[in-house]
Design goal:
Largest sheet: none
Number of strands: 0
Structural class: mainly alpha
CATH class: Mainly Alpha
CATH topology: Glycolipid transfer protein, GLTP
Strand content: under 5%
Length: 212
């Protein structure tokens, strides 16, 4: 089953495993593939995301009609008393959503920075590592314990040059103006779903959970 389709489906709160090959979804595919290109630390982080998705898949496949929404999955675990366990689907949903919060924050900063540079030629450009760190501070850091924070500090040292990253996101035969449009579309697509999922998690008092 296509990784990107699963990720989009679960984050959107709809378990419809359809491939997605163009436009904003293509950015997600390239962001996912980047983890393989910049070292073992990022590969470990990517594996953690994949495991969370597989956990949701397993429950969904037990009864697709019953567990057709993320809310249904969390309600089931709330009734069972397992909703706060380390290997619960609720925690998988929580961390997948926070990962997408980070993705949105990073892309917004990247798009804004590039736009400002076009308006002010010769202005200093923040490195990709700085943009990633800023996005991390507002999305994931508040929920990370010292072990997770230490792992992210190591990952930051493996971040590629900004021009390489942007070029890789654009792919072949694509202009930055088109990439900018795709980023804007992706953010507009993701944010309402992320807001809904955060509201659902808050209803079950899961929105403040932290990692080690």
């Amino acid at each position: 089953m296509d990784f990107l389709a699963c990720l989009c489906a679960y984050i959107f709160g709809r378990l419809l495993f359809r491939p997605c090959g163009r436009g904003p979804c293509l950015i997600l595919r390239r962001l996912h593939g980047l983890a393989d290109k910049i070292g073992p630390t990022m590969a470990v982080l990517r594996l953690d995301v994949q495991r969370n998705i597989e956990r949701l898949q397993e429950l969904y496949l037990q009864d697709p009609s019953k567990y057709s929404t993320l809310t249904a999955m969390v309600e089931k675990e709330a009734d069972d008393g397992t909703v706060r366990k380390a290997d619960s689907c609720a925690r998988a949903i929580l961390w997948l959503t926070r990962s997408m919060d980070f993705t949105v924050a990073l892309l917004q900063r990247l798009e804004k920075e590039e736009e400002e540079e076009e308006e002010e030629e010769g202005s200093d450009q923040q490195s990709l590592a700085q943009l990633v760190e800023d996005a991390y501070k507002v999305s994931l850091k508040p929920w990370h314990g010292w072990i997770s924070s230490a792992a992210c500090k190591i990952a930051l040292k493996l971040i590629p040059e900004r021009a390489i990253f942007v070029g890789w996101l654009m792919g072949e035969n694509q202009s930055y103006s088109l990439l900018k449009v795709e980023i804007e579309k992706l953010v507009q697509l993701l944010q309402p779903f992320l807001d809904d999922i955060h509201a659902m998690l808050a209803k079950f008092k899961l929105d403040r959970l932290k990692s080690t």
